[in-house]
Structure formats: structure tokens, C-alpha cells
Amino acid sequence: MSRIGRNPITVPAGVVIDVADGVVTVQGPNGTMHRNLPEGITLSQEGDVLTVDRASEETSQKSLHGLTRTLVANMVTGVTTGWTKELEIIGVGYRAATSNPAVLDLALGFSHPVKFNAPEGVTFEVPTPTRVIVKGADKEVVGQVAATIRKIRKPEPYKGKGVRYLGEKVLRKAGKAAK
Predict the structure, then answer these.
(1) Beta strand pairing status for 31-36 and 95-100?
(2) With 90 as the cut, is the pLDDT of residue 60 above it?
(3) The pLDDT of residue 86 is above 60
(4) Which phi and psi (to 5°) does residue 77 adopt?
(5) Three-state secondary structure call for residue 171
(6) pLDDT tens column, 134-145
């Protein structure tokens, strides 16, 4: 049995989980999330404990068992506490600002400012002009938005300027060698 898949998911108070026609729906204080269940994977809830079971011992079923358990656990965490990704901006004149939580204005050394509109369910916070916090209930969407913002101006290896994840180490290269 999958070590991850056999771990039960504890359902906090205020979270409602419904499974119907192969779709799991998780409702909580931060919203509602839906996900299709793979064939052969079932969910059963007893009180405040949710367990994920598989139909057979096939290799594909074993891999989907742990994956489904993790995805459902991420949904439960998302609707209760939410997910965040922090980005930091390094560079002279590079900064971020937000006038509304769904729109991020970036100055990243281009000839024009870059406006980034958040998808539904994602908000931005800018505590300082060089720090951006991406928040949302869906872990996949939060991570994808953070990766897309980072891709606008990746950290370059010579001076380290650009957008990076908080705490990310950028491997620096040596510049030109003098004669």
C-alpha cells in the first residue's frame, strides 16, 4: 500500500466534503474547489477523518492512490488556510505595486511597466516594493502564477537581477576576466 495514500486526512471544522459521480467537492471558509477522481480511487469519510482507497494493486493504481490523497489534502488546506508564494525583486529601479489585489504593476527594467492580472481566486499583496506575496486557495494555481511572474524577468547569473522566489539561491557566474 502507498505510504502516502494510506495516511488519513483530518477534516477541520467548517469544511464540507462531498463525493458524487467521481468528483470530489471541498467547501470551506476560503471557497469551494472541485476535482475529478481517477477511476478505481474512492474516498470514504468517517466523522472528521477522510481515507483514500484504491480498487486494485496495479502500478498505475498505486501511483494514483498517493497522488489523489495529496491533492485532496491540498484542497482541504486551501479552503481553510490558503496557500502563499513569496517572490522578491532584485535590481536597481525594479519594483512592484498594486492598486487592487487582483492587478500587479511591475517595473522590471523594460521600457514599459508590466501589468499582471491575477486569475480568479488569486490575490496579490505587496508589503514592500521589492516583495510580492501571491495568495489563493488552489496550490497549483498559486504556484503557476508565481512561476509566470518569475518568468517575466528571471534572475540573471551575472548580477542576480530579476524576480526570484523568496530564499532562492541564484548561481552566480564570473564576469569578464581582465588581461
Answers:
(1) unpaired
(2) no
(3) yes
(4) -65, -40
(5) coil
(6) 999 999 999 999
Are 85 and 143 contacting, i.e. CB atoms less than 8 angstroms apart? yes
Helix axes 59-80, 139-152, angle to 10 degrees: 80
Query: pLDDT tens for residues 111-168?
Result: 999 999 999 999 999 999 999 999 999 999 999 999 999 999 999 999 999 999 999 9
Q: How far apart are CA 179 and CA 161, in angstroms?
A: 26
pLDDT tens-place string over residues 23-49: 999 999 999 999 999 999 999 999 899
Q: In angstroms, rounded to a whole number, what is the distance separating the alpha carbons of residues 150 and 87?
A: 8
Taking the model in full, what pTM does it have? 0.89
**Burial of 1 from C-beta contacts in 10 A (0-12 / 13-18 / 19+):** exposed
Question: Which has the closest alpha carbon to 133: 83, 91, 178?
Answer: 83
| CA angle centred on 163, ends 161 and 168, rounded to 5° | 95
The strand pair at 95-100 and 103-107 is best described as: antiparallel
Q: Which amino acid is residue 43, in one-letter code?
A: L
Helix (H, G, I), strand (E, B) or coil at 174: coil
- DSSP assignment of 28-54 equals ETTEEEEEEPPTTEEEEEETTEEEEEE
